[in-house]
Amino acid sequence: MLLKYFYDEGLAQASYMVGCQASKEAFIIDPAREILPYMEAATKEGLRIVGALETHIHADFVAGSRELAKRLGAKMYLSDEGDKDWKYENIEGLPHQLVKDGDEIKLGNILFQVLHTPGHTPESLSFLVTDGGAKTEHPMGIFTGDFVFVGDVGRPDLLEKSAQKKGTADKGAKDMYASLNKFKELPDYVQVWPGHGAGSACGKSLGAIPSSTIGYERRVNWAFQHDDIESFASELLEGQPEPPKYFGIMKKVNKVGPNFTLDLRKPERLDDINILMKKIKEGAQVIDTREAALFSKEHIEGTINIPFNQAFTNWAGWIINYEQPLYLLTNPDKLEETQKTLQSIGIDNLHYYMDVDLAIRMTSDLESYHDITPKEAKELLDEGAQVIDVRHDSEWESGHIEGSKHIMLGTLLDRLEEVPEDRPLIIQCGSGVRSAIAISLLQAKGVKDVRNMLGGYARWQKDMQ
Q1: How far apart are CA 357 and CA 375, in angstroms?
Q2: 9-68 per-position pLDDT tens digit
Q3: Cβ of 336: how many Cβ atoms within 10 Å?
Q4: What is the CATH number of the domain that holds 422?
Q5: Assuming Cys at both sites, which of 237, 247, 263, 387 could form a disulfide with 243, CB separation 3.0 to 4.6 Å?
Q6: Catalytic residue of the set 328, 429, 450, 454
Q7: How many domains does the chain have?
Q8: How many other C-beta atoms are found inside a 10 Å radius of the C-beta of residue 423?
Q9: Which domain holds residue 410?
Q10: Residue 424 burial (10 A CB sphere; 0-12, 13-18, 19+)
Q11: Model confidence over 341-375: pLDDT tens digits?
Q12: Which parts pass through the membrane (predicted)?
């Protein structure tokens, strides 16, 4: 048996290739939309990808199972658990097999046993793996998807918060408790291969270690320390981070099926700044992907800054309107990588791009904003300025600047009417990164008297002692 690990840092998402070296075949577990890395790895190992196993209908990225089925003829193994609201649609024309608890799937000498492990979602599955090539009947590991992570378990509230399925959070928490009771009966030595690592919004305290064992999780994972279902459910639901806005869209996309990437239009290159400026005046969404330090010094009026870094995927999903054509100001050398990153969360509407340095040189309609220290911010506050805190709810609740107003960054565009326009604004987050994005949003919407507080709340606490 061969096992290869793939990890997308922007999504904190793990996928896996399991290969049988005897039959020269491979399965991909929870594949991402960009399938080229799997194809290259399979070729290198002399394997043919014949199947894709999905643990559930994902809410945080576009799954690549249909892409593998369309391009390689791989069979999709999809959950047939859950009620009618959580069944895959539009799969009739693709090779597939619907599976339930207790089913078995063979890959050469390797056996996958299907376990229904609801809690994160009603249809969630885990796959217990036994390597028959090792001449043993003992399972080696389990692919848990968003069921059990290293140090945490999947949150059950996404359906309620992102898909507006009322009442599902409490039921999901209780389902999770029952699933964990089954899970902990498996042998201690069984390895745990989860679908996410630290940074994912699918839980609240995921570990950064890529794998674990059932025995270790039973001993140290907080979720296994409860003997009472009510106390477990309460702790599981408490303190979960705000799910990104795009999660609800992803759930629908993965249920009904995404566009195939080979069918997507290629973005057109713009070289005429007048066309871009006209589109901005008409309300086009234009994203500048430069780092905040460059954007703050000069940028085209009406553009929004989402730096192309590890947090890009998350904030793009919060901020970009999926229904509008997207214009990108970027380094052309980064265009392909940026487009694939956008497509990983279903943003397929990238219609145009322009070399950002060229665009800056070609126009005088530029603006900037100022970074200030906490001490300078305090002076402005004493003169009547207002602090807007754009951190997450849990951060705000743990401590904040007296008199500040809390509007979490991802909700800012929906709450612009709450932003005062009769006084200077100081935008603040935890370190100064999210506040820079917030300033670009406000400036693009016409709120100009804004400043970014360097170091955020952490530096405020230090400097104001």
Answers
A1: 34
A2: 999 999 999 999 999 999 999 999 999 999 999 999 999 999 999 999 999 999 999 999
A3: 11
A4: 3.40.250.10
A5: 247
A6: 429
A7: 3
A8: 12
A9: 370-464
A10: middle
A11: 999 999 999 999 999 999 999 998 899 999 999 99
A12: none
